[in-house]
């Protein structure tokens, strides 16, 4: 085998055309018509499923056989021009694909879209308004069936003007204006469920470390905590509620103050905060759950499932948010009226909670 090295600065020789794979000739409507022995108009009527067209069943079958044999694919864009809509659903996100829950909203939306014969067009804008505008415009040009507009954390949002040109559903966010359909996590139910894990194990003096950052999750999870205590006949004690920045350092820094509250259990705003609390408790020579039971929120798998002991928590339903958004867009689920549809946050119980000492028999 002969080889030739290029001299410095010399361009590599172009690949020989005979070594390039040949592109297959796309099968046309005319090819199918010739194979079936009919006109292109007849093939078009069969392809577009015009059942009222006067075509003999034997002829329809002959066209279908030719389509299968030749591997003919209808021109989707041409069908879009005729019908005024396409089999695409758009999803515009400000960072869903890069969050710790990477892709779960996208995954749920994609699975649900496929189930109903649609494909997902995805644009991750990282919060860039110009890029967002371009993405929505492109989706409108493709005549998408509708657009899911999603944010990476649950919050109120402004609806982009161009989004109003399409049928749309807000996912993991909401808008104050009437008629804006949305699906969001049920933060109140999630906070209540987190507290109930501890109540079921006999704990009565339960602390809550909330976030310092204003958000629907902050208010909702506190309300759920209070509801769970009230239903258990336990008076709300403001002294058992603390605030910290919602990350590992925030949870770690709250440890000393928490230990002054004489709680037997604590529910943390999120799993990252709980991870920091684990470190703080360990430095104080305390064990989980023997000395203090701990519950988190989010079910961030890379954290919650791998702490020692594994963390009991409440999951954010990102997959179901995406799926529910598609169902709402397609009219398969009724809207919740003026309010956003709330998606249940399931509990995930692991080994960070045990029966409280006073509740043992």
UniProtKB/TrEMBL annotation:
It comes from Arthrobacter nitrophenolicus. This is LacI family transcriptional regulator.
